[in-house]
Amino acid sequence: MTPESITTFLTGYLHSLSEETRNEKKGTRYGFDQIILQLAQAEKWFPIRLAFHRGAKGKEPKPKKEAEHGVDLKFLSDDGRTLIVFVLKDEPLTYRNWEDEKFHADLHRASEQELTRPELRGVKTVRIILAYNKGEEEEGVEEFDTFVKSRGSRVGAKGKITFERWNLETLTALMRAKLLNSPAIVPERFFHSFSYLCWQVGDFSHGSQQWEEVLIPDWKEFLIEVLAHPAQERNVRLIPVALLVLRAHGKAEPAFETGWIELLEHAVIALWRTTRTTKN
Regarding the domain delimited by 3-178, which CATH topology (the fold level of the hierarchy) does it fall under? Predict the structure, then answer.
C-alpha cells in the first residue's frame, strides 16, 4: 500500500466525521473530537475539560449539557506550564462561515482564559488551536490571521497566548504519525473489540486453528457491528482505516500476507452487502 493511498483513506475518514460523537435517531454520529482526544493522550496532555462524558464499554460518549464558552476540549501539558484549548468545527473555514458558524465568536471566547484556578497557576502559555475537518478558503484563512494579529500575545496578567490552525491536512498528518498503529483510532464503542483483533493478528498465524476459529469470526462480527443499518459514509470509511491498523499489527511472518488478503476479502464482501441494503 502506497503512502499516498494511506493518506487518501485517512483524509476521507476524517472528512466524513462530525464535530462530536453522539447518538441520534437516524444512527450514531461519529465525531473527530475523539481523534483530538487520542492525539492529546499521545502527547501525554492531561484533560481539564472534555465536551462529553466518557462512555461505558461498547457505549458512545454522552455530550455534556453545559455552556461551552467557545471551548470544546482543554488540556494541560505534563509539566503544567502550557494550557491547550481546542475549538472544533466540522464546517469549512470560509469568509461567510467565519461569522455564520461562529468561528470568530468561539475563538474570542476561548482566548479569554482564567488562569487563577489552583491547577492553572503554573501556566505560562495558552495554545488556542482551531481544528476543522472540512477544508478552507483563502478569505477564511485571512479572517483567522487578522483575528490573531488583533488579539495580541498576552492572556491574563502573566500568560502568553498563541494561535494555531489544524486543518484537514494537518489532522491527517498527525493522525498518521501518532495513531496509525493504535486501536484507539476507531470510535470508543469499537475500541475493546478492535483492540482484541489487533492482538489476534499479531499473535495468530494465517491458516492456524486460532485464526480460523477465533480471529475470522471476530473480524466478521466487527464488520457487522461497524456497518450496522443504517450505515453512513463514515461507517464505510472506517473499514479501510481499521484495515490499515490491523496491517500494522500483523504477525511478522510471510503467512500474514495471505492472511491480509483474507481480511480484505471479508471486508469487501461486508461492504458489498451494505451497498445492497442502504439507500445512501
Answer: Restriction Endonuclease (3.40.91)
